[in-house]
Design a protein that fits this description.
The protein is built from 13 helices and nine strands. By secondary structure, it is an alpha+beta fold. This is S-layer homology domain-containing protein.
Length: 382
């Protein structure tokens, strides 16, 4: 999901007026690290599953709780409340009321928000064809997820709806017009479902759940480019013991690249991202022969990079077949430590100082797969 600058952010979660603020947020990659990790709310301790996203958003002034110091994480969010949240976080300016909804009275505190978000969070069509906002209803889980996916301008039309059947027992209860947005949300780790395997599309959604979804939608970039720029993935050269067999198989089958001129060795491990709020990946790094680095770079062109992408895709699909249900990330690149200053030879773009010398880290290609489907590819720009 691409990083988006937010011009208008919420200063109140439950407001009685439609307010905006123009806060300047830090870089997306630093969001998790810059949060004030203390008990911001008396009823939301560090052990709560939503502590990290809520405390991050509160630390940036995007969410506040109640006057008694509580957050009420398990309280259901109503449709008016979510309309205000979405309008603020998506930067939608309030408009003069046009009377779109007959059940929204003039002067209603949520009226401008309800009309501002109607392209993402529309009213509900009744059996007589009338469209109502239904302000006394709680927001449904499927409507909230669908609205957020549309608000971040996701290209959800390319999502695979089969993911819903593969992951949710109650997939058939998801509305037809919400299936592709929710499939995209699942594919991009915006939503994960409940432990029992249900999605609960028509059920309500709590304040903690909405805060978590907003945090993931606007503060976490799960694209390969985002993971790289956010320092969520780095080259590595040690595998988890549980993946030794997979590592051996991949190295036997894909141990060479570019017409057998360059050797590759794959390493495998589990990788958490964004302090647990991003996707948990099975991360495979293919380390290209360091002894031929300068030759590789001298001959590097788009055709070679495309071959590297194809190999990354093949490796990702093979790992996905061996480990169904896991998000597989494959990256090809170089990593090496030099114990002397090599900037004159290797340049400074991919070198950074470490305690005992200089570390070279560089990626060339990447792919993400799950359950036999390639969800993302990435190629370095020359």
């Amino acid at each position: 999901m691409k990083k988006r600058a937010l011009s208008f952010l919420m200063t109140l979660l439950l407001a009685v007026t439609y307010q905006f603020s123009t806060l300047c947020l830090p870089a997306l990659a630093n969001t998790s690290d810059q949060a004030d990790h203390k008990n911001v709310f008396s009823d939301l301790g560090t052990g709560h599953w939503a502590y990290k996203p809520v405390s991050n958003l509160a630390g940036h002034g995007i969410f506040s709780g109640y006057p008694d110091g509580t957050f009420k994480p398990d309280q259901a969010v109503t449709r008016p409340e979510f309309a205000v949240m979405l309008a603020a976080v998506a930067g939608l300016k309030p408009q003069k009321l046009q009377g779109v909804y007959p059940d929204v009275p003039a002067g209603a505190w949520f009226g401008p928000a309800a009309e501002a978000v109607q392209q993402y969070f529309p009213g509900i069509t009744q059996t007589n064809g009338q469209v109502l906002f239904r302000p006394n209803d709680n927001a449904s889980r499927q409507d909230v997820v669908t609205a957020l996916v549309k608000a971040v301008k996701a290209d959800y039309h390319q999502a695979d709806p089969r993911l819903l059947q593969e992951n949710f027992r109650d997939y058939d209860k998801i509305n037809d017009d919400s299936r592709l947005p929710i499939a995209w949300a699942l594919q991009n780790n915006l939503v994960r479902g409940y432990p029992g395997g249900d999605f609960g599309p028509n059920g309500g959604i709590t304040r903690a759940e909405v805060a978590t979804l907003i945090f993931r939608a606007y503060f976490i970039d799960t694209s390969i480019n985002g993971l790289i720029n956010g320092n969520q993935i780095m080259p590595f050269t040690d595998s988890s013991p549980s993946y030794r067999e997979l590592e051996a198989n991949l190295n036997d089958k894909y141990g060479q690249i570019i017409s057998s001129d360059y050797h590759v060795r794959y390493f495998v491990r589990e990788q958490q991202t964004y302090a647990g709020e991003g996707p948990e990946l099975m991360y495979l790094f293919g380390a290209i022969d360091n002894l031929k680095y300068l030759n590789w770079v001298a001959g590097l062109n788009d055709d070679i990079l495309k071959q590297a992408v194809e190999q990354s895709k093949q490796v990702a699909l093979e790992a996905a077949a061996a480990y169904p249900g896991k998000d597989i990330l494959v990256m090809l690149g170089h990593t090496r430590i030099f114990y002397f200053d090599v900037r004159d030879v290797y340049g400074e773009k991919y070198l950074h100082p470490v305690s005992d010398g200089w570390q070279l880290n560089r990626f060339y290609s990447g792919a993400i797969a799950k359950n036999g489907t390639i969800n993302q590819t990435w190629m370095d720009k020359l």
